[in-house]
Task: inverse folding
């Protein structure tokens, strides 16, 4: 695929690496790919980062026909540029597309474009421990018709953002509110897709939980509101008596790359790891029986996020004495070690980008 390149004439100064935060600064260039029914995906180009000119009738602005991905590029010890299982993100983006009636794209070509953009912007990859270059591919519907129907035109865009360490001083267990009323996703819905609207719909519960002093919500299933699904925009694991349990995948759970990697790591270590329905009552009973050893969320942004406290219907439990669990820490160290090229990569997960 030919990708045309227009370089910026006004490169930005690099931000202070100690003040990056998450997703607040963007690099000098972005990738854009257009879709129409006659030409398919065409006009692949890298252009200076900047505002998009959009018609106010654009479909995405009204009915939210949009999907996205989140991944990271890291600097290896010898200065290599490393991606983590990027083909998984591209495959998932196409699955999200299918659910949202967006035409599929060629995953190889998209990955080629992503690599070219990351290589061009390599000086933006921060090097301090815990930092990375966050990669945000997304697709938006651009037809200018107010009828409710799939758009016939789209834009596939990739933007890049250097991000700071999620934890300034090591892993930090957080307090989580088990959301009793609002749900994130239902059977037959769009929860397994990284569809923009899923996140808009989750904000109210998140805001309420934060007002109650919690970091995030734990979502229950949308039908009985009894079974654990996810924590915020992360998958979730519970260690009950030495067995690691995560909800099994279905329409309502996002199939995280981190979740899958953790399952593979645990199994390779001989630790029992099961995917099954897990009732929130079972979690509280395990705690009462002294068997709830640790719990954590997992996703690309935080990698692993220990849960130190859970509140559900006026009941509050502390997990692991509010400290990071042993396995939680080991998973974090191993995953980040593999991702940054500081540990061997027995599963062949890491993909090098030619500078
Ligand atoms: C992105 C996301 C995850 C985590 O997926 P990763 O591939 O591990 O980053 C989990 N849950 C939700 C709802 C998500 O959007």
Result:
């Amino acid at each position: 695929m030919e990708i045309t390149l227009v370089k910026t004439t006004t490169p930005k100064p690099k931000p202070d690496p100690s003040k990056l935060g998450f997703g607040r600064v963007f690099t000098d260039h972005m990738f854009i790919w257009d879709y129409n029914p006659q030409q398919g995906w065409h006009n692949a180009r890298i252009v200076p980062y900047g505002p998009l000119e959009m018609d106010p009738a654009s479909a995405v602005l009204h009915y939210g026909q949009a999907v996205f991905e989140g991944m990271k590029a890291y600097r290896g010890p010898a200065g290599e540029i490393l991606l983590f299982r990027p083909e998984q993100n591209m495959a998932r983006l196409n699955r999200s597309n299918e659910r949202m009636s967006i035409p599929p794209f060629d995953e190889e070509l998209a990955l080629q474009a992503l690599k070219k953009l990351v290589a061009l912007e390599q000086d933006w990859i921060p090097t301090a421990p815990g930092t990375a270059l966050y990669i945000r591919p997304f697709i938006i519907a651009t037809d200018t018709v107010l009828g409710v129907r799939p758009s016939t035109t789209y834009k596939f865009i990739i933007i890049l953002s250097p991000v700071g360490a999620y934890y300034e001083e090591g892993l930090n267990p957080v307090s989580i509110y088990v959301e009793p009323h609002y749900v994130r996703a239902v059977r037959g819905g769009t929860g397994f897709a990284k569809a923009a609207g899923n996140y808009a719909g989750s904000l109210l519960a998140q805001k309420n939980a934060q007002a109650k002093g919690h970091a995030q919500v734990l979502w229950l299933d949308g039908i009985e509101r009894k079974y654990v699904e996810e924590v915020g925009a992360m998958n979730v694991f519970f260690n009950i008596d030495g067995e690691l349990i995560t909800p099994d995948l279905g329409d309502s759970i996002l199939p995280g790359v981190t979740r899958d990697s953790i399952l593979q790591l645990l199994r390779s270590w001989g630790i029992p790891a099961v995917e099954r329905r897990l009732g929130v009552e079972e979690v509280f009973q395990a705690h009462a029986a002294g068997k709830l050893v640790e719990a954590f969320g997992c996703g690309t942004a935080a990698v692993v996020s220990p849960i130190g406290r859970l509140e559900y219907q006026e009941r509050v439990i502390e997990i692991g004495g509010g400290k990071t669990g042993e396995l939680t820490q080991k998973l974090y160290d191993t995953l980040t070690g593999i991702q940054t090229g500081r540990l061997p990569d027995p599963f062949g997960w890491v993909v090098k980008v030619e500078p």
In short: Residues 70, 194, 230, 233-235, 254, 256-259, 299-300 surround pyridoxal-5'-phosphate (CB under 6 Å). The two ends are 19 Å apart (CA to CA). The chain has a mean pLDDT of 96. Helices lie at 59-63, 86-99, 107-120, 196-200, 203-211, 257-268, 280-288, 326-339.
